[in-house]
């Protein structure tokens, strides 16, 4: 912990920095953590034999907090915030945008740098920001450490285009350190957004000098990981675009992801580290939308604005209602997704009050009568189809039906069952009213005897018996035969037991050091043992080619070369029975990926676990 700056020190520092400083009554403690001794990143393994699949994000301890927490705060805060969404051009015309204002309003770089020099978020109060998040029920925060403008919101040593060296802000403050401390004190995870696309760095746009930019980017990311220990990195600006040209490739993403996992194997990383695909990072990032069902092959998080802008825009009063926001959260959870809801602090660093108010209302709903159980630790309902009258999430042996269209007196709510299960009891959270549940047609009718408890969503908690689930198997994995050609020809180069089909060989890797990174193929064979008697969805994520047989029947045939691709099949499996399985895969050139996942009404999506796979 560095010394606490005093008023005089502030003046001295300001004098040195050439900016007038008004000493605050109490010098803001400088919470920049003493940099940890530079961690030499673990050597990044590359080349044949490398498999970049760290674990199964659907079940790994590393991602558990992300899968349980469900609800986070996004913060867009940068030099653009100083303009508060509006730029008056020299000719008197006014141009409006938020975090894209420099580009969309064609602000010359010198003019933009000049305005940034006046940026002074003196009122940024990390404790207040964290309180707003906690009051909302949010469990993690992701703040823009560097947006497309390239302006670093921490005292980076890599350049002087940052809040410490290029602003009117207190040079003894470090808002990321303040936010890290406040988040840690409040038990909230902190993550950083980082834009790959950089409008300011002169080496970015030219492929010939891009490596120089990349080196600086790696150095900045190492500063963030070493000095602030984020739980999550939220990349952005990975897409193909111009002005300036963005040369980022999926191979660049592979390299960066491997580097970051070497820095901290516990990091959770989004799919924009690469090219926003199912094989990039740990989770998908739909934006301003909510997928209609659980996303195949990947965790996911929907990010959304509270009004119409990510960065602060003083004129934008188009705030979503707390009701809409809470229902969005319930919808994302009921499809096993996360909701990252954005606030944009103003030029002084203050979170707009309408944002704070709505977040508090969301938190009030979550804290009422245990309604938060429908979100925190909950996931896709699975056992039932999503109804038109609301959403259904599952948490252990409970289903939480969040009803947004309460039935008329005497009416009932129908739930269509996706598998055999029993409802053992039902109650309305926050009400003593009687609820009767009767089997009806393809599912159950839920008949409440009273009124809805609130206008946002009334939660009916159903205690369920999901039906028999066999004990975990004793499998050790499938027989794996690896061929050093793309046609599964000849004798296999090696034969062994493969615990799970969860492979990301990507560009440089392969199943073994003796197998080249291109032109290889693999056959897995043995049996798969489900724990429930249900219709399972088998999902492959593959690049270049894959096909799957169950009990001798070809159920997935994706045997034409392709980019990373999802294929699915529905197969009826019997609990405790060992169904024969054969999977074939071929890699010609380029990237190589093969994952085999399963899900069923009673089984959430995961890489098929080792315990359920047998070599014979
Ligand atoms: O261009 C950015 C945009 O400014 C904002 O940061 C969003 C938030 O995810 N991401 C990009 C647009 O997809």
TrEMBL record:
Enzyme class label: hydrolase
Family annotation (InterPro entries): FUC_metazoa-typ, GH, Glyco_hydro_29, Glyco_hydro_29_N, Glyco_hydro_b, PA14/GLEYA, PA14_dom
Residues spanning the signal sequence: 1-27
Residues annotated as domain PA14: 473-612
Alphabetized GO MF terms: alpha-L-fucosidase activity
Keyword terms of this UniProt record: Glycosidase, Hydrolase, Signal
EC number: 3.2.1.51
One example of a Gene Ontology biological process annotation: glycoside catabolic process
Gene Ontology CC terms: lysosome
Region of interest (Disordered), residue spans: 27-58
Role description: Alpha-L-fucosidase is responsible for hydrolyzing the alpha-1,6-linked fucose joined to the reducing-end N-acetylglucosamine of the carbohydrate moieties of glycoproteins.
Family under the similarity heading: Belongs to the glycosyl hydrolase 29 family.
This protein's name: alpha-L-fucosidase
Organism name: Streptomyces kanamyceticus
